[in-house]
UniProtKB/TrEMBL annotation:
Protein name, UniProt field: HAUS augmin-like complex subunit 7
Domain of life: Eukaryota
Gene Ontology CC: one annotated term: HAUS complex
GO molecular function, one term: microtubule minus-end binding
């Protein structure tokens, strides 16, 4: 609802602006409803394209020549010219043909037209537009009239104004001042250089005084502060500090020239040519570290497997005879030579047990468990 209201207000404002600019494409329409104005400005029609073209020409009159060079059937070329103009004015993208054709959202089209109309200069119908030639001719006629014989006396009075008749006392005063000025011309020729030098020196002193005042404001330690308990730094103390600083700088420069300059100018050390040996040693150490990590993992796995086998060997379970036995007890009670029938699962369990025990014995013989 808010978007529709804004579109309606924009359409009314743009239509009123076109009427104020005497756009020939809206003359005789007499639209009263905002929806009709919105349809006129946002519906993709040839009339809308002509209105947009008139707005572009009003903003930039040089576009009129480009549009005239194109045929009436070259609509796409005209639209492309308007797109280029809008992009030059930073109002649209270089490929924004939908905005020019009227296929973009209505609010965006109205904003685009309003921004273009803001660039159109106002036209005053009461003032006739004069060409450059007419302005030149009018200026020449004005100058000819001013320098005519009837106005020469007035121009002379303007260039050399007088205020006659003066009163008697004023004429005497002016005559006395004129005589004094003539008599003082010779004196002035000698006094003027001295006065100039004095003026220059005074200006220099004033500028120096201003600079010193600025420096004094920046140096807070030179300002008197009755509230601060710290003692005031006097100019003598400042002079002593500057002297000490200059002596320290002089001592440092001498020490640098005698002690440090040789070290600073020394050539950088050369790199050792045996870098490949260090690289080889590093690779060997890295390989050894990886092997030790593998052995550690093997020991962890072996210990875990031994604990698992020990748990299987010591836990009491049912082995098919209805009674709980440990694996060691059950393997001792069962003999492969007796005539009792053994199940296939029992045989497989015994075989796995013997294999695991053999592996554990081999580990114990090799001494892996005692490696760490």
């Amino acid at each position: 609802m808010a978007g529709t209201l804004k579109e309606t207000q924009l359409a009314e404002r743009i239509y009123s602006r076109l009427q104020d600019l005497n756009c020939p494409l809206v003359e005789g329409l007499f639209l009263q409803e905002a929806d009709s104005m919105k349809d006129l400005l946002c519906t993709p029609t040839l009339h809308r394209t002509d209105i947009l073209k008139w707005i572009c020409v009003s903003c930039c009159p040089s576009l009129k020549g480009r549009f005239s060079a194109l045929r009436s059937t070259q609509t796409d070329a005209v639209l492309q010219e308007m797109v280029c103009f809008g992009h030059e004015m930073m109002l649209c993208e270089p490929d924004d043909l939908d905005l020019i054709k009227g296929l973009a959202p209505a609010l965006r089209q109205l904003h685009f037209m309003e921004q273009l109309l803001a660039l159109v200069p106002d036209r005053c119908p009461d003032r006739a537009e004069l060409s450059v030639g007419q302005v030149t001719v009018g200026g020449q006629e004005l100058l000819r009239e001013l320098f005519s014989a009837s106005h020469i006396a007035q121009l002379t009075a303007l260039l050399k104004p007088t205020c006659n008749p003066w009163s008697a006392d004023l004429r005497e005063l002016l005559r006395h001042k004129a005589s004094q000025s003539k008599m003082g011309q010779n004196k002035t020729s000698f006094v003027k250089p001295a006065e100039d030098s004095v003026a220059v020196a005074s200006a220099l002193l004033e500028s120096t005084k201003c600079v010193l005042e600025d420096l004094r404001k920046e140096c807070t330690f030179l300002q008197s502060d009755d509230m601060s308990p710290s003692p005031r730094l006097s100019p003598c103390a400042l002079r002593l500090a500057i002297t000490d600083l200059s002596q320290l700088m002089l001592a440092f420069s001498q020490c640098f020239n005698t002690e440090f300059r040789g070290s600073c100018q020394r050539r950088p050390p050369a790199l050792s040519p045996n870098s490949h040996s260090f690289r080889t040693v590093h690779q060997l150490l890295l390989t050894c570290s990886q092997e030790l990590q593998a052995l550690e993992q093997l020991l962890d796995t072996s210990s875990t497997m031994a604990m698992t086998v020990k748990q299987i060997e010591t836990d009491r379970r049912y082995w098919g005879d209805g009674h709980k036995h440990t694996l060691r007890e059950y393997s001792g009670s069962v003999s492969l030579t007796d005539g009792m029938t053994q199940t296939q699962g029992t045989k497989q369990g015994l075989q796995k047990y013997r294999c695991i025990m053999n592996v554990l014995r081999s580990f114990e013989l090799t001494g892996i468990f005692t490696f760490l």
